[in-house]
Design the sequence.
C-alpha cells in the first residue's frame, strides 16, 4: 500500500525509533510473571520529539490499556511538547557529550534540544549539575542504611533536577529506595 515502508529494514527502523513500552515494572500483571514488556507505536505520543530535559513524562495505564502523557513542569503556550527518549537513563545524570553520543548511537541523530545547545558558562554549569545528579543517584543506590544523609541526598537530587528543569518525577526511584530503606530500619511507619 502507498505510504508504507517497502523493506523490513525500514519498518524495523520505524519501530525501533518510535515504539514505547505498554507496561511498567510496577504493573501487577507483569510482576513475577516473567513476561517481557510489550511495545506499541502510538499515533500521537510516538510523534513527540526528544529533549534531554523534557516537559512531559510518559506512563502506562494498565487498567485502561493506554499510554499517558503528563506535563512534567509548567508548559508555556506554544511550547513544543518533548519527552526523554531514554527517560530511565536521563534521570541518572549525563554530560552533554554522553547524551549526544547515546542519541547518535541509538537514534541516528544529534540532539539539538535547548539543553544540548547551551554553550560557555551555562553548559559548564549544566554539566556540573549533571555530574552531581549522577554522583547523588549512585550514593543513594549504594546507601546501606536509612539515615539523615540519605534523606538529604534525595532532597539534593530534587533540587538539582529542578535547577536543570528536569521532571521531578525523575526523583521517584530515589525517594522510593530511601523510603524502603527507612522502613527496613524501622524509621518509617508502615
Sequence:
Amino acid at each position: 500500500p502507498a505510504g508504507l515502508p517497502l523493506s523490513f529494514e525500514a519498518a524495523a527502523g520505524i519501530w525501533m525509533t518510535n515504539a514505547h513500552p505498554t507496561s511498567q515494572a510496577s504493573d501487577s500483571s507483569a510482576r513475577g510473571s516473567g513476561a517481557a514488556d510489550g511495545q506499541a507505536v502510538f499515533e500521537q505520543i510516538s510523534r513527540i520529539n526528544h529533549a534531554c530535559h523534557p516537559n512531559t513524562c510518559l506512563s502506562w495505564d494498565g487498567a485502561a490499556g493506554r499510554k499517558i502523557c503528563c506535563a512534567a513542569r509548567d508548559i508555556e503556550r506554544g511550547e513544543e511538547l518533548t519527552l526523554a527518549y531514554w527517560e530511565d537513563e536521563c534521570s541518572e545524570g549525563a554530560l552533554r557529550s554522553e547524551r549526544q553520543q547515546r542519541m547518535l548511537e541509538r537514534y541516528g541523530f544529534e540532539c539539538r534540544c535547548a539543553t544540548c545547545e547551551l554553550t560557555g558558562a551555562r553548559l559548564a554549569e549544566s554539566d556540573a549539575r549533571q555530574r552531581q545528579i549522577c554522583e547523588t543517584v549512585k550514593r543513594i543506590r549504594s546507601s546501606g542504611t536509612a539515615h539523615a544523609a540519605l534523606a538529604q541526598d534525595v532532597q539534593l537530587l530534587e533540587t538539582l533536577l529542578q535547577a536543570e528543569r528536569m521532571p521531578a518525577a525523575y526523583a521517584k526511584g530515589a525517594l522510593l529506595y530511601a523510603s524502603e530503606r527507612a522502613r527496613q530500619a524501622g524509621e518509617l511507619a508502615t
Observations:
- The CA atoms of residues 122 and 188 lie 40 Å apart.
- The chain is about 40% helix and 10% strand.
- The first strand starts at residue 20 and ends at 21.
